[in-house]
Amino acid sequence: MNMKHGNREASRGRSQARRARAETTERPQRALERRASGDGPSAERERLIAEAAYFRAQARGFVPGRELEDWLQAEAEVDRRLSRS
């Protein structure tokens, strides 16, 4: 493999990684906005909470010891958004 081909592959990989990061940070917001009204099924609510808690942990670098705080804050955020829908 020549250098030009290798550089193109690396650049393509970085572009795909950037797109994936952008999509994952938008996903919880879009999921919440799609909810029409009410709490919805408990499994869907729990999935939304888990996703929001994950992104909270990611934002703080996954430092251990604050998992419960992440979950409780995510739960309050999801419930607040679902009640507005």
Task: Name the descriptors.
single chain
Protein model, in words:
Residues 1-12, 20-45 have a biased composition (Basic and acidic residues). Residues 1-45 are annotated as: Disordered. InterPro entries: DUF2934. This is Fatty acid hydroxylase. The chain has 85 residues and is mainly alpha-helical. It has one domain. The protein has 3 helices and no strands. The chain has helices at 3-34, 42-59, 67-84. The mean pLDDT is 75.
Specify the overall morphology.
Answer: globular
Average pLDDT figure: 75
Largest sheet: none
Number of helical segments with 4 or more residues: 3
Tally of DSSP β-strands: 0
Helix content: over 70%
Q: Which structural category do the helix and sheet elements fall into?
A: mainly alpha
N- and C-termini, Cα separation: 53 Å
The low-confidence runs, each spanning 5 or more residues with pLDDT under 50, are none
| Element-by-element helix/strand order | HHH
Roughly how many Å is the radius of gyration?
18 Å
Indicate how many domains the architecture comprises: 1
The proportion of residues in beta strands is under 5%
